[in-house]
Amino acid sequence: MKRLVLSGALLLCAAPLMAQTPVTTSITVTTANQRKFTGFGASLRNYTNPAWSATPEGQAARPYLMNAVFRDLKMNTVRLWVGAEPSNVHPDDAPEPDGIPPVSRLKSRFYSEFVASRALDELRARGVDTLLMAPQFDNNSNPSATNLDSFMGKLTTLIYELKRDYGVTIHTTGINNEPDGWTSATCVSAVKLLRTKLNAYGLQSVQIIAPEWSGVSQPILDRFAALQADSVAWAALGGLGSHSYGNNTIPETNAYINSAPDKRYWQTESADPESPDSPTNAPIAAKTAARIMGDFNHSVNTWMYFHGVLTKNFNDSTAGVTIGIYDPNLKQARLHLKHAYMKQLMQTFERGGTFYRCTNPERYAYQNPALFMNYNAKGAFYAAACKNPDGSWGIGVVNTTSLPANSSGDNWKPAATFNFKLDMSALSGTGSLSFQAFRSNASATMQPLGTITLSNGVGTIPNVAPLDLITLRSAPSALTAGVKGEYFNGRDLNTLIQTRTDSQIGFNWGTGAPASSVNTNSFSVRWTGKIKAIETGVYTIRTLTDDGVRLWLGDTGSPNSAIHQWRTGGNQSYETTISLSAGQILPFKMEYFDADSDAKAYLQWKRPGSTSLVTIPAA
To answer: CA of 332: how far to CAs of 113, 143, 316, 594, in Å?
Structure first.
């Protein structure tokens, strides 16, 4: 693989399967429909399967897979199942008239599966802090009012007794897994019944999500509408829930979740169950990345895969339902390729960040401009963009062309390689911002590709081949809450014309004016702000200006500045050093003037251990 960097843009050279002329199309990142990224996770089932402990290989496989999935994918949420099971799984359940075992049996099974096995301890040790209950009641037919009341009563009693007897706190619960046989009215009644019963047990903190339908289409929109129309049910809900298999959340869902910013959208189950999976299965990996980014691009807050780890034969026709797998016959453990794609995404998007909406204005190959996945008509690519808690930006794009058709009627686009023109309005006016780029495909995972630079939020991600996942992430921000810029006419901060917030100090105005009504020559600027140290060590701080500059670090009212070069001259570069601790906040003030001709002003740093000076990144 060859790599070239030309004028700040990456040339991503795909594996030489087939030479294709790249198609140029746009990904526009808008400031619309911003949603917080609150959770990532998976279900945990069959943790007590004897295959894990029957052999030394099985005993070693379970912690290896738990680390790789829950720890390395930075999962904070796990979905725990309880309720009716096939008789061949639990033949001694002795269901009651409602078809569900008694609470005592549900509790003993939960204790065995998750408490006595130390599964919850193992999950907590790997960063999981949110438990989602997945009740499994009759989901094929609409229950009677009596049975519905019994379902919600048993669920409430179980949640209460788990906390009372074992100290297990369930944070969120559904009403039923995939209640596709339940009417809208039943879903509404279930939410209200469950909220009333939880409150009666003092469990007001337990959130309810609903309906967790098997997909996103008109039936779930009908349930959303019914829940919203009932003020009691809507107030009782902590969030909406759905599953993501042949599709993902769609623009129509946004109207419901965006009308209630206090509620979260949970996508609680996603998988590719139609075929075996493998460490080189790029089609399933690409579809998984597409669903993750498609869901986050359409208001999902918490996203969950179906199973995290399972014991199952590698060639099982349903192996695609899990991320990590142990084959007890072969006595081997392995991770499917989608694990690498998911890991790359979770190193790009950080929980606590905010997703911004990505669109494709050209509607390439009849692609919906909103970049969502429908049941049959599939897009050629999917994308997501997130501003992370540390101020860095993460961007991901996956090329889903060339995927084969399947029995579900999925209609994927023919193979195409893309040059993506990226336009991020949120970065307008920020100057140059550098991103580290990575790629995963069947041949290589998390492959570093060098640097790509966006100029005021505009740049190109070139040569993205079929089934490639490309991610970009900028450096953490160091300027907290932007920089106050006061723009004056006159060389000595004479007449204040405009005050604004600049995201960073990285300007090359040439012979133009820096702002409306400000002189093209003989102007000056005062910037004040705070720098946040990213790591502990010695920082080099540099000013690069045309013409004069003064810089204060720390005590901005001191008569003694760290740099004082208030004189004319082009391309003046001055440096100072300062020792900072990680997280330390350093106030600063920078004053600058332009006399005539060209004008520019940069505030740069070289972080500990680095060899390059870069503009201090924006918040």
So the answer is: 23, 43, 14, 68
The C-alpha atoms of residue 397 and residue 461 are separated, in whole angstroms, by 9
**Packing angle, helices 282-296 and 337-346, rounded to 10:** 30
| Tens digit of each residue's pLDDT (9 = 90 or more) over 415-436 | 999 999 999 988 877 677 889 9
With bands split at pLDDT 50, 70 and 90, how would you rate the model's confidence at 10?
very low
Contact 29, 479 (CB under 8 A): no
Query: What contacts 60, CB < 8 A, 6 or more positions away?
Result: 333
Provide CB contacts within 8 A for 124, sequence distance 6+.
Answer: none
Answer for the pair 316, 328: CB distance below 8 angstroms, yes or no: no
pLDDT grade for 81, boundaries at 50, 70 and 90: very high
Q: Provide the residue count of the chain.
A: 619
Q: Exposed e or buried b for every residue in 140-154, given b needs 16+ CB within 10 A?
A: eeebeeebbbbbbeb
Do the strands 585-594 and 523-532 form a parallel or antiparallel pair, or are they unpaired?
Answer: antiparallel
Q: How far apart are CA 543 and CA 562, in angstroms?
A: 11
Q: CA triplet 210, 215, 216: central angle to 5 degrees? A: 85
Q: For residue 493, what pLDDT is reported?
A: 94
Looking at residue 129, what DSSP letter applies? -
Query: Rounded to 5 degrees, what angle do the CA atoms 420, 424, 426 make?
Result: 170
> What's the Cα-to-Cα distance from 320 to each of 121, 277, 379, rounded to whole Å?
27, 5, 21
- What is the H or E stretch that residue 125 is in? helix 119-125
Q: How many helices (H) and strands (E) does the chain have?
A: 10, 34
Tokens at 117, concatenated: 């096995």
Which pLDDT belongs to residue 93? 59
Picking from 462, 416, 445, 394, the residue whose alpha carbon sits closest to that of residue 10 is 462
Tokens, residue 578 = 């300062």
Whole-number Å distance between alpha carbons of 433 and 592: 22
Q: Say if CB 197 and CB 153 are below 8 A apart.
A: yes
Tell me the β-bridge partners of 326.
Answer: 311, 333
pTM as predicted: 0.80
Nearest to 93 by CA among 81, 74, 80, 108: 108
Q: Distance (Å, rounded) from C-alpha 104 to C-alpha 111? A: 10
The rounded distance, in Å, linking the Cα atoms of 214 and 177 is 8
Contacting residues for 444 by C-beta, under 8 A, at least 6 apart: 1
